[in-house]
Design brief:
With about 350 residues, the chain is of the alpha+beta class. It is about 35% helix and about 25% strand. Bound molecules: ligand DP6.
């Protein structure tokens, strides 16, 4: 069943929670295999994307809600990250609250204090906006359930992803596991630009204990914000080709995940990471986000794969860090022969 934006719109509730209320939620991070790069309209992707959910790398969020006697037009909130007030994160959250007003009008009825913690080191510069907005969307849906309890679980599930998307596109894919697809594809049942779905096939056992370890080539702030990055696709000379490529790749990737075709999975995952960077290198302005050590690590991974016949591959996000993907049964061997030998910190538990 498909939902529309209209289905998720709500009238302001007549009810308000009485007294202070605490709502907690946690959400995982995710790593895209076929990437979302480029958007239009209200946070709609130009192509579908597919990701592994990283269940062990999570954002835990607690919201303290105090009912307001005279609610204003904007949401009044403060955001704390790992115990510290972080006004620098607040504009993106304020923009999120603004975008969801039509779908969650009750958010303006409270004064919010939002406390977030990550299970992975923030100093690593690993983006946490996907897990962060997914956790916040879950909190909003928990509140909605108290105020409008008549909906189905399917509705609430889809709406969590719908709301998370309005915070950050990739957050739409951080609301369920083990794999999520976001973006409409004519050959994928129930797929939607408005929210992500768990595809209706069983993930092949080869991929069920897959790991993602991140080699931190570069720590700290991103060089290009994702919003600015997506904008580069608007007039990109390869936009149409890229769209076609991503639509084809989604079908190929789902096939490999279903059948356990590790060899082609590796080939496609790496090709997709390089396509993302190629798009950035050929946009106006252009960006080279890989560092010399990114390339060194990529070559090392390929060497290990060829010489030791280990099924390991890489993917990249819009940055220099390398996500190393491999089945759990080779984790020990990789640690001994690869991770322990490179001069970079590694986040291992990004599973
Ligand atoms: C390269 O979800 O961070 O990681 O919607 O502007 O918040 P916004 O962008 P964001 O973009 C993620 C881009 C990517 C690929 C992906 O995760 O699919």
């Amino acid at each position: 069943m498909q939902f529309t934006g209209q289905d998720f719109s709500l009238k302001h509730p007549s009810k308000q929670l009485s007294g202070d209320t605490e709502i907690k939620a946690s959400a995982p991070s995710n790593i895209a295999l076929v990437k979302y790069w480029g958007k239009h309209g209200e946070q709609l992707p130009i192509n579908p994307s597919i990701s592994f959910t990283l269940n062990k790398s999570r954002t835990q969020t607690t919201a303290l809600l105090t009912p307001l006697e005279r609610p204003g037009g904007e949401v009044s909130f403060k955001f704390y990250f790992e115990g510290t007030h972080r006004p620098d994160f607040e504009p993106k959250i304020a923009a999120f609250f603004k975008k969801i007003k039509n779908y969650a009008p009750f958010v303006t009825d409270y004064q919010w204090k939002i406390y977030s913690n990550n299970s992975f080191p923030h100093s690593s510069g690993i983006a946490s906006s996907a897990s962060g907005f997914a956790a916040l969307a879950k909190i909003i849906i928990k509140l909605e359930k108290q105020l409008y309890p008549q909906q189905t679980e399917k509705y609430y599930d889809k709406k969590v992803s719908f709301l998370a998307r309005l915070g950050s596109g990739s957050a739409a894919r951080s609301t369920a596991h083990p794999v999520m697809i976001w973006g409409h594809h004519p050959q994928i049942k129930n797929s939607s630009d408005l929210y992500a779905v768990v595809p209706d096939f069983e993930l092949h056992p080869v991929f069920q204990n897959f790991r993602d370890s991140i080699v931190l080539v570069e720590k700290g702030q991103k060089k290009v914000s994702s919003t600015a990055g997506h904008k580069l696709m608007e007039n990109h000379p390869f936009k149409d080709i890229r769209k076609r490529q991503a639509f084809d790749r989604i079908l190929q990737m789902t096939e490999y995940l279903k059948t356990g075709d590790l060899k082609n999975f590796i080939k496609l995952t790496e090709a997709e990471a390089l396509s993302l960077h190629a798009l950035m290198m050929t946009s106006e302005p252009n960006y080279i986000l890989m560092q010399p050590d990114t390339l060194k690590i990529i070559h090392l991974i390929r060497e290990i794969r060829n010489n030791k016949k280990l099924p390991v591959c890489f993917t990249l996000d819009a940055g220099a860090n390398v996500h190393v993907l491999y089945p759990g049964n080779i984790a020990k061997e990789l640690k001994q022969t690869f991770f322990s030998k490179i001069p970079h910190d590694v986040i291992y538990d990004f599973v």
